[in-house]
Amino acid sequence: MRFDDVFDHLGDFGPYQRRQYFMLGMVIFSCGVQVMMTVFTLDLPNHRCALPGVQNDTYQIQSSSHDQLVQDYIPLVSRAQSIPAYSQCFLYGDWLSSAYNGGNYSNEVDTRHLVDKNDRSNSSQRNQVACSSWVYDTSDLSSTIATQMNFVCGDTLLKSHAIMTMMVGQVIGCLILGPLADVVGRKRSMMIALSLHLLASVLTTWAFNIYMLGALFLLNGLAMAAAYCASFTLAMELIGPKYRHVTGVSATMFWSAGMLWLCLLAYFLRDWQHLQLAASCPIILFSGYFCLVPESARWLIRKGRNSEAKSIIRKAAKINERKLPSFVFTDETTEEPTIKSESILSLLKCPTLLIRALIVFLNWLVCSLTYYGLGLNVGQLSGNIYLNFCLTAVFEIAATLVIVFAMGKFGRKSLYCSLLLLGSVSCILTLFPVLYGDESLKWTVSMLAMIGKFGVSGSFAIIWMFTSELFPTSFRAGVTGISSACARIGAVIASYIANLVSVLCARIGAVIASYIANLVSVLCACIGAVIASYIANLVSVLCARIGAVIASYIANLGAGGDVGIILPQLVFGTCGLVAAALALFLPETQEQQLPDSMEDAMKFSTSRRAEKENDKEDEAYSHLSSDQPALTSQSC
């Protein structure tokens, strides 16, 4: 008897499984809160250079005289819809800080120190210097890590670095603690990870510099990835085949529910430290899982610990009010450890499973790249950050509900490819309203982004369960861990794409500006020495201005213009199309038992007809001798 046959007598999703499923789902809930919290804690609101020496300067204009000071000494960058945008990195160098009431702003400013109107009109000729302090818009968030540590101007990439450390930690957690669950057990691995999760989350509240923040993000990422992988694997091995697809996909709703809870917390706790602490303290409740959550009975049987597995199964049957027949514990249910030599390294001996694993790894990377690329940048969308974040969570829940009702009819593979295709095409279609539309069509960009989030959220939910069904118990957690590590690599890439576009465009602008200046200098050198000297001095100033304008324009184009909007979406969409095409080569796992060995996994085929033929062959050869696995292993 195979382990999945036990569920015919135990029940696929009885009261015992529902209780355990909810408790394990709360681990995913907590991971969703901590990962997506960076949307708020690392948010960089609108800001500008602070007025030096003015201690009570604010981003919001307090009065007409305050407005006059800002106009006089902060360069105006743009004026969109009558709303001025002032420089975030430079101020005019002729600032007289000591002239304003000893550094305090007053409604009555000594007008002797204000710049003449004629001088203001020639602002291009005034010297600009880099500012060292900033004021931030506090209308949505009173304090964030980005505003406290000033992730602005030359330090803008520090935000991406911080996110990167968390994702790198998740890669390490998936690669180390993920496979560890196959060795020491799902429960023990999960509890170790949750302990580290609590420690890192609470200590993050008092991070005072980027180095401490990065170290804690690294530790927390490691812990969350390991906890997620172990809890998900434990839940999937607890539930019977009939409800496994529903519960596997629905597990992502705990993540989305965590996002909604986070949005509610962030709305009432506008200070990042208060938010971090309030979201971290409840993690201590997971300490009760030492007594409440049992080890995976399937894993115990694989390790030959049959007495412990029997005890867990009997307890589950009692709570489910089911009677187990005596033969449940006498057949292959307790004999499976005879093929216990398989490990994740066995993939290298089986080209078919290895190719499947590589396709799965790539799809995880692409799903994560698009998911986090669209999700973590929700603060950059126009509108209220809380509403936008809430809508992304709602779209994720909607995608999950669609999957729950559609997967049983269409299967894993076809639905996964369709949703990933939908998300990818939506990202690519943003090209048209951005390049060919006007201001009235900007809403279509947000709509396409939400459709993209819907598609990729659905495909991300499916790939978790799809992976757990494709690979055998002997190294299922290990494959899930490596897959999750690939997802974190995608998340790292996503955190840098927007910033790299900005940096790249700024570099291009600087090169063009330098080229123009050098070209004109060479031309001037060809003229007579006296004339050249005069013209060179005159043109050098002109070239510097032209170069600065070009560099600024291209940099702004990359940061917030057409290039900055289109290029990331094209990257997400193109990668999604490639991943969806490769996923077509994976086998369908609908209504199939979880494979316990590589031979079981090899029976999956990429066509429904072949699957039915395999089922018939499985019945015909079910009573063959014990050397049959050696024969089937030759297919690898």
Task: Please sum up the structure shown.
With 636 residues, the protein is mostly helical. It contains 25 helices and six strands.
CATH architecture of the largest domain: Up-down Bundle
Cα-based radius of gyration, to the nearest Å: 30 Å
Main sheet makeup: 2 strands, antiparallel
Helix share bin: 55-70%
Strand order of the largest sheet: 1-6
Low-confidence stretches are: 96-103, 105-118, 334-339, 547-561, 607-611, 620-634
CATH topology of the largest domain: Growth Hormone, Chain: A
**How would you name the CATH homologous superfamily of the largest domain?**
MFS general substrate transporter like domains
- For the record, give the distance between the C-alpha atoms at the N and C termini, rounded to a whole number: 24 Å
Structural class: mainly alpha
Percent strand: under 5%
Q: CATH top level of the largest domain? A: Mainly Alpha
Shape: elongated
Care to count the β-strands?
Answer: 6
Can you offer a commentary on this structure?
The chain crosses the membrane at residues 21-42, 161-180, 192-211, 217-239, 251-269, 275-293, 353-373, 385-408, 415-437, 443-466, 487-509, 515-535, 542-559, 565-586. InterPro entries: MFS_dom, MFS_sugar_transport-like, MFS_trans_sf, Sugar_transporter_CS. GO terms for molecular function: transmembrane transporter activity. This is Organic cation transporter protein-like isoform X1. The protein has 636 residues and is mainly alpha-helical. The protein folds into three domains: 15-43 and 142-295, Growth Hormone, Chain: A (Up-down Bundle); 46-54 and 68-76 and 88-96 and 132-138, no CATH class; 350-636, MFS general substrate transporter like domains (Growth Hormone, Chain: A, Up-down Bundle). Helices cover 65% and strands 3% of the residues. A hairpin with a 2-residue loop joins strand 2 (76-80) and strand 3. Helix 2 (15-36) runs parallel beside helix 10 (241-268) and helix 8 (186-203) runs antiparallel to helix 9 (210-236). It is elongated.
